[in-house]
histidine kinase
Amino acid sequence: MFMWLKHYMPRSLYGRAALILVLPVVAVQLVVSFLFIRNHLEDVTTQMTFNAVSAIEVAMQRVAEAESEAQAQALAAPTLSVFGMSLEFPGPGAVPAQDLIGWDDFSGSVVRRVIRLYRPETLAVLLLDNKEIEVFLPSKFGPAEISFNRRRVTVTAPHQLIVTMVFFGLLMTVIAFLYLRNQLRPITRLARAAQAFGRGRVVPYTPAGATEVRAAGGAFLDMRARIERQIEQRTQMLSGVSHDLRTPLTRMKLGLAMIDEDEAEPLLRDVDEMQRLLDAFLDFSRGVAEGEPEEVDPGALVEQAVEDARRGGRAVTLAAMQGEGTVMLRPLSMRRAVENLLGNAVRYGTQARVSVILTDKSLRIRVEDDGPGIPADRREEAVKPFTRLDPARNQNLGGGVGLGLAIVNDVARAHGGVLRLSQSEDLGGLCADIVIAR
């Protein structure tokens, strides 16, 4: 039932921590302020106003016993002077038509309510800006005006408690947030290190912070070291096997060169095929290990790859180049990925089209062809190493070893991105997108 709140919740850890700190403080202050106003300020104002009304009632009784205005003022003076009140008879024209009180004056509203509760005949109640209260009452000498200072019926500074509470609430919130920031900083450092490693970069990281954060940081370092060892071992193994096989292949070529050309031609084709497979193994073994990430203009990189493909006689066109800027990439690995996509596109189709879109959040390199494409139910399988989908493409043009899309997928994932396969809307063949977050 509270799912709609997720759209308004902060996304960052600091934002949520600030919300956790501020929300309880604000809630407590609101509750305390409400209870203070309702249960303390109102009760005190009511009691003080009741005392003032009692004095007014005694004074009006003296006025009723007097024979003249002067005598009425003299008889009421002893009672009114105790409360700092004064009595005047301003005449009928001086009585306001209605009460005068501010819309935000809570204690003033209480004063007016109590006065009218105990003196229903009151003509008007005025709470002036100079902190004076004027009460108009009927008498046998005409309207009687009793004025007194507001401090007689209201608290002098009712806001002091609220101001003090808000000040110390803000102070404690700042102190708590500074302390909490020190606890969150190791978590954010761990997140940055993990994100960088996911994008193919290794940044210095030392576990720090609370025990649980240190444990998570140590586990991340162990995992990173284990993955790096596995990548290094795979690279060394495949490179060693491929390199060692080159020597016997070279000897086989030399031996076949001394045999009759007609008899040696089929064997030479087999040797060339083995050589091509070894080259594919080497490309796969190198993977993304070539070079360190650096600031690269993806548009220039793709444009150079397209120009090289055109010089090789391939029908490749550069369709769109949107956005400018640089992205942290391994240029050799990314270039190999683009070349693999271009090679597959012209191998299984007659033309290829390349586009690059660079935004503030992502980089997308798209390669489309007009070939048979890959069925939707086999696209996930197509990016696995040593998977051949020639029956779905076009086996008559020559079978592959099944590493082309696997290399592209490894390169995309090493840069913190993904390889997406779909059907080209314009050309009808395969549409391969390398999408990398910036």
User: Anything to note?
Assistant: The chain has a mean pLDDT of 82. The chain has ten helices and eleven strands. The domain at 292-437 is CATH 3.30.565.10 (Heat Shock Protein 90). The two ends are 35 Å apart (CA to CA).
